[in-house]
């Protein structure tokens, strides 16, 4: 973990952006404010799609579809008739 000041970050932004991939970077502003600089693969505000388990389940479902492992429902039958 590296703790730096905002002015240090401004002066060496590229250096700390590169380091954030491997190291935890904390920016200390004053005595009571701290911020963390970290790399993210993608930015989302959706808690469902930010969960790696959900993404894994979606990817498994897509692989099943591509491999032909799915059931087509008959719209003329009820759900129970389709299942049984």
Helix-strand blueprint:
Elements: E1 2-4, H1 6-11, H2 13-19, E2 25-29, E3 33-37, H3 47-50, H4 52-66, H5 79-83
Parallel strand pairs: 1-2
Antiparallel strand pairs: 2-3
Give a description of the structure.
Belongs to the phD/YefM antitoxin family. There is one protein chain. A hairpin with a 3-residue loop joins strand 2 and strand 3. The mean pLDDT is 91. The chain has helices at 6-11, 13-19, 47-50, 52-66, 79-83, and strands spanning 2-4, 25-29, 33-37. The protein contains 5 helices and 3 strands; from the N terminus they run E-H-H-E-E-H-H-H. The protein is rod-shaped and about 70 Å long. The longest helix is centred in the C-terminal third of the chain and has 15 residues, at 52-66. The protein is an alpha+beta fold and 84 residues long.
Task: Name its key features.
YefM-like fold; 2 domains; alpha+beta; three-stranded mixed beta sheet; 5 helices; 84 residues; 3 strands; single chain
